[in-house]
Amino acid sequence: MHSRLQHLQSFQMVLPALSCSGGKLPNRLFYLSIPPNIFVDVVRCASLRASSASGWTRVIVEKPFGRDSESSGELTRSLKKYLKEDQIFRIDHYLGKELVENLSVLRFSNLVFEPLWSRNYIRNVQLIFSEDFGTEGRGGYFDNYGIIRDIMQNHLLQILALFAMETPVSLDAEDIRNEKVKVLRSMRPLQLEDVIVGQYKGHSKGGQSYPAYTDDPTVPKGSITPTFAAAALFINNARWDGVPFLMKAGKALHTRRAEIRVQFRHVPGNLYKRNFGTDLDKATNELVLRVQPDEAIYLKINNKVPGLGMRLDRSDLNLLYRARYPREIPDAYERLLLDAIEGERRLFIRSDELDAAWALFTPLLKELEEKKIIPELYPYGSRGPVGAHYLAAKHNVRWGDLSGEEL
């Protein structure tokens, strides 16, 4: 904590018009939460006119990092005319979430989990993001990007890479980012038949009316921009071959949540399968990391209900953060800003990592736009389009967040 305070004392947030540094070593951090079309102009001015002569100069770049491989590559090349790679901090606030930070700790420091982390024991992995509100006046920005670019290509894909990576050589930023890049480069190209897109429509419930996406005055009439998407992704390596990684992200759904759900394989020759009937999914062990809200880690296990009979029940071994750790959990941006001040790059995105992420999604995005794929409509406040269930069933998966057995 003392070293962080020292960094904070030497840190100056500056604007193009700089004040005198007062004789102290001037370290300068620029945070670009601005429209992407002026990124390069601001960086050029900051680099040429406002760089620290004796301390460090760093730039935090807020997403979006382009719209596809081409625009992202051009942005990176333009930024590198004025900055070195180690000066660029591409921020994805989901990597600063407490449960995402804890993901590698859970896996690499607990012997009970590491041997299970492969195709031998894991049947599927689900990365779920849902919001219970629509665009609400932000349609101008959102319509230009859509849910795939806004959530899946960055937030969920970054979590997937952290989840699936091999054990890094060390906790050094470059060692961790090297392993994430390997995962992204091992992924099978996304196919249109493995993707479902949706858009929320108007809905009345309990005497209250909810607007459709296209009712937002900032959204172009007749827009076919997806507000919901579900996709099945696969990693072609020895650890994960054949395991479906299902992503789901949407606006105007029935609940607000972000979580990782790991569904394990059925027990071979299960002695108690008669107690579960023909639906063995009811007996599936599931590990859930709830990123937000109400951060928690819980493991669904099978348990005998006390009594004279042999009745089995699914129970939760749970770590609810607000109960175990009553102190306030730091905000993701707070953590990442402090990391940027300290020069810790572990939770920031490297340029080759960004290239690999866009290479995975760009062909799909172009196909959706060129073929003008019409999204399936779903009511505001519902569980999303029916097509998402068919997509999961195609890969022998059930969405875990729809079971109704939640903490």
Automatic annotation (TrEMBL):
Gene3D superfamilies: Dihydrodipicolinate Reductase, domain 2, NAD(P)-binding Rossmann-like Domain
Biological-process GO terms, alphabetical: glucose metabolic process; pentose-phosphate shunt, oxidative branch
Reactions that this protein is recorded to catalyse: D-glucose 6-phosphate + NADP(+) = 6-phospho-D-glucono-1,5-lactone + NADPH + H(+)
Keyword line: Carbohydrate metabolism, Glucose metabolism, NADP, Oxidoreductase
Gene Ontology CC, one term: chloroplast stroma
Ranges for domain Glucose-6-phosphate dehydrogenase NAD-binding: 23-102
Enzyme Commission identifier(s): 1.1.1.49
Pfam name, any one: G6PD_C
Protein name, entry field: Glucose-6-phosphate 1-dehydrogenase
